[in-house]
Structure formats: structure tokens, C-alpha cells
User: Fold this.
Amino acid sequence: MGLRRIKLEEKARNICDGIPSGFYCTNDLTGYHYCDDNSVMTTKQCGSTTRCSCQFNMICKAEEKNICTEYSTLHFTPNLIIGYVGTRYIEVPHEYNMTNNIAYLIRQDALDEHYYQRNFFENKVQEISLIARDPKDKTLYEYIRYYQNSAQVSCEKLAAQNFVTFGDHYKYYSLSKHPEIIPTDFRFANSPFSYKEEWTLKIGRLFPHQQSVHRYLIIDVEKHTGIRKPVYFVERTYGSTSEEIFTETKLQVSIYSETASGSAWFRAPHSCEEPIF
Assistant:
């Protein structure tokens, strides 16, 4: 699973069939639906400076007047280099559990619509993804290479509909008032020069076949400049009621630089045989 292509595992809800009556956020958090006992849906929009606070696929516990709240959003610079190292734990009840070492290296020059990601599994390259424009027709493509035991096994070239920046999928995260990850880990103690923030995204399970996903991003904030830098990422996925698979990914940020990488990193290959950095 690549960090950039993490997507919200939910669809726009335009009917209320099969779910309990109550209030639910729209799929972009700009408003909320009300589903009555007869599965009839009405929708209301939040004000321009507020958004739905109940996140995704979860019934709102707040009173209707408190559903739309003021919010903050995370922003990352257009150009950045970021590396993650960590583990992924998978547990299948009554069958097996395993832990694997994983890592990611990401380079982005968003102003030129350039993106590069290299995924590692047990210290070996597993996937390389490059988004760049074809030098001939100037069309934006995503070039993907898959590897097994460091040897390339397949290659794809997909037309990219639009360029989505690294930080785009963090825009739905909310600043946590009651951190769950920070208090349990001494590495995230505050220093005289900075403090930590915990941002969360939670996707609930409305139907038995759906997964439930909890994501946490720990940010280091410099006190004097207000500059925010990601330091830790946790994702916990709880499988459907039939599968019951639990997955936990923990990633420590090993590299973070708000600089451009240079055009050499984003050179579009002419064929599957031509290497990507």
C-alpha cells in the first residue's frame, strides 16, 4: 500500500437504506445527511468556515446544532522529500500473525506536477511509482513498476486524470483534543523548542462487509516559527465482520526536507526496460 494512494474507503451516500436513523457527514464533510426511520434522506450544508465533525461512516453523537464546527487543516509545501521506515503487523484470528519491515521514499515537486515514490518490503524494492508528463504529447501519466526479490516483474503506464499532492489526503484529518498515540510513546515528549500535535482520521463501519480504519499523524510544531513537520504515522484497519483481519502500520519519519528534488528524478521512461531512479 503506497502512502499517496491511500483513499477514503467510502462512497457518496445518497440513500439511507440499511443504516440506523440519525445524522451522518457527507463524503466531503461540507455538510451532513439526516436519515429518518423511513430511510428518507435530507441534506444540510455547513457554513463556509465550518465542516461536519463526525468524520466518515459514523453516526453523529453530537446534537444537530453542534455537528458543524470550526476546523484547522494541515498544509504541506509543494516541494518536499520525505522518508518513512517502520513495520506492518497483520493478524488473522485463530490462524496466524506476522510483522514485516516496510519503508517509503517520496519526492514531490508539485508546481511541476512531479511525484516519485519508492516502496520497500523487508529491505527490498517492492514498487516504484512516478508521475510525470510524457516528453512527446505532454500528457500526465503515472508509471508504475512492480518488483519481486528486487527483480522487475511488471510495468504499467496509466493516464493521470489530475495531480493530487502528497498532503491532499490529510485535508480530512482533524486535530485531536484527546490524543491516543502521543501519551503512550515517550519518543513524542515535548521539547523546549517544539510541541506535538495528533491529527486523526476515522472511517467507521456501517455495513458488515466494510472495514473500519483509524489513522493517526503526529506532527512536530516549532514554537517560534509555527513550522509543522510530520514525525510519525499509525494506521489501524479492522476487517469486515466476516474476515476479522487486523492490520497495524507504524511509520517513523526518517527524512524530511522542504526542497525540490530536481528534474532528473522525474524523467519519464520511454519503455518498461528503461530504468526509473
Confidence is low (pLDDT under 50) at residues 5-13. The CA atoms of residues 24 and 33 lie 5 Å apart.
